[in-house]
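call fold(seq) -> tokens
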Amino acid sequence: MAHIIVVGNEKGGSGKSTTSMHVATALARMGHRVGGLDLDVRQGSFRRYLENRMAFSAREGIELPTPELAGLAEGSDPLSPVMADLETRCDFILLDCPGSHTKLSQMAHAMADTLITPLNDSFIDFDLLARMSPDGEVLGPSIYAEMVWAARQMRVQAGAGPIDWLVLRNRLGTQAMHNKRKVGDALSNLSRRIGFRVAPGFAERVIFRELFPRGLTLLDLKDIGTESLSMSNIAARQELRDLIAELKLPGVSVRF
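ret:
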């Protein structure tokens, strides 16, 4: 069966669609069969990213490794039949969830073999995982962590395996700032309490915003004629390489 990767967080602007696109495309570039599904029916950034990619490939006559883009079905359960269809021909299926609490997002989390939660490196985003006292004491899990707990319980009841949950620290500052250290310590402590792994994600880079209109990723730059990469682009590719390695996906070895 396909390994299901869910990218979720109940807060917008954390880098879910950028993460989804780069993970899915990296797996496709390594020869894996990848299906992609955007559950944000209103904004649909991941869907538009893939559509931009297909349009750019057709216009430029360049064949780029691209995940298969699927759409939701009609009816009261729009997710299950699409997932069943993708599983017949995909090694991995990546679901990009909206930045809000929806029934589709709940269903997706219960299906996740691997859950990636991109998180801006601030206590504002941390609040989705845990409630904190004014003096920094963790009081208990917050709304998103409780939703993941419910998804885990549903998987246990269904006889499915555990969810490997990775919290991704996006937009990390380049300096060892006091707030960065405090957020890191809080995440480390919380990870042991509610069961997730912590990994560095993507720094804030202009290149991500520039690539979206053409549906490109960091791995496509040489395919479109970029002969030399800037130091920033090289660092960003290494961040992606580290993320793919940290995911520890079955049958995946980093080869880019």
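The chain has one domain: 3-247.
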